[in-house]
Design brief:
It is a multi-pass membrane protein. This is Cobalt transporter. InterPro entries: ABC/ECF_trnsptr_transmembrane, ECF_transporter_component. The structure is a single chain. Helix 1 packs parallel to helix 9, helix 2 runs parallel beside helix 4 and helix 3 packs antiparallel against helix 4. A two-stranded antiparallel sheet has the order 1-2. The protein is globular, with a radius of gyration of 22 Å. The chain has 247 residues and is mainly alpha-helical. It has two domains: 115 residues, no CATH class; 62 residues. It contains nine helices and two strands.
Length: 247
């Protein structure tokens, strides 16, 4: 059974909220493993892995540098250089937050890579959402994978013209400055082309819009979305109640 786009969004959003609210190592790692398995089953693992690395590597490194070196509650000092102290508590806190971020990022990327953008636009439009807003939301969800794919094509074209990229993160970072300009220019040009195409299809019209695409929405999936929403609200309430209960 194919998931409705709103069901996929509800599942990804609810999972991200619950994982963040729970702040649990086992849950975060379970979500990451489940998302990785689903990406392999869905055939999007090769596209998702580079995007995950681009987002998470600098985030996790910044968390380790900030909390691993300057964690005021840390008492077990492993190394010290002036005011900077590497503490066990700081590293544990940084890794815990990194696991939460990794779970959220992998889930949202999996949703964006497996969801059908035309189906999402049609589903939102059928529920009274303006077509322009629906398209902006759908484009935002698929922006990062689209940039990753475009960047890969630019890199292949430059390598075919003789650009030599040294292996490793440093080599790729040095080559990125040669790829940034054509990437930005191509995105700007594509934005203009899309705007003209949307205008021709009546996205800027103030009248009622119709769509030839119909997205089936079984009653069972509508019930699942309600349960997912309630689960996310319950997780937030439990997180907010926890400090009060412990006080």
């Amino acid at each position: 059974m194919r998931l409705h786009p709103l069901t996929s969004l509800a599942a990804a959003g609810s999972t991200a909220v619950i994982t963040t609210a729970a702040a649990s190592w086992p849950l975060s790692l379970t979500v990451i493993a489940a998302a990785a398995g689903l990406s392999v089953a869905g055939g999007v693992a090769r596209r998702m892995l580079p995007a995950v690395a681009v987002i998470l590597v600098p985030l996790v490194l910044s968390l380790l540098a900030m909390h691993g070196l300057f964690f005021p509650e840390g008492t077990t000092v492993l190394a010290q250089w002036g005011p900077a102290r590497v503490t066990v508590e700081g590293l544990q806190f940084a890794l815990k937050r990194g696991a939460q971020l990794s779970a959220v990022v992998t889930v949202l990327l999996l949703c964006s890579l497996t969801m059908s953008v035309p189906d999402l636009v049609a589903a939102l439009s059928a529920r009274g959402v303006r077509s322009r807003f629906a398209f902006v939301l759908a484009s935002t969800l698929t922006l990062l994978p689209a940039i990753g794919s475009r960047l890969g094509r630019i890199r292949q074209a430059q390598e075919a013209r003789g650009l030599v990229i040294r292996p490793g993160i440093v080599g790729r970072a040095g080559a990125f400055r040669w790829q940034a300009v054509p990437l930005v220019l191509s995105l700007v040009e594509e934005a203009g082309t899309r705007a003209a195409a949307l205008q021709a299809r009546g996205f800027g019209s103030s009248g009622p819009c119709t769509s030839y695409r119909e997205v089936p929405d079984p009653p069972a999936q509508r019930c699942v979305r309600v349960v997912l929403l309630l689960a996310a609200v319950a997780a937030i309430a439990a997180r907010l109640w926890q400090p009060t209960a412990g006080a």
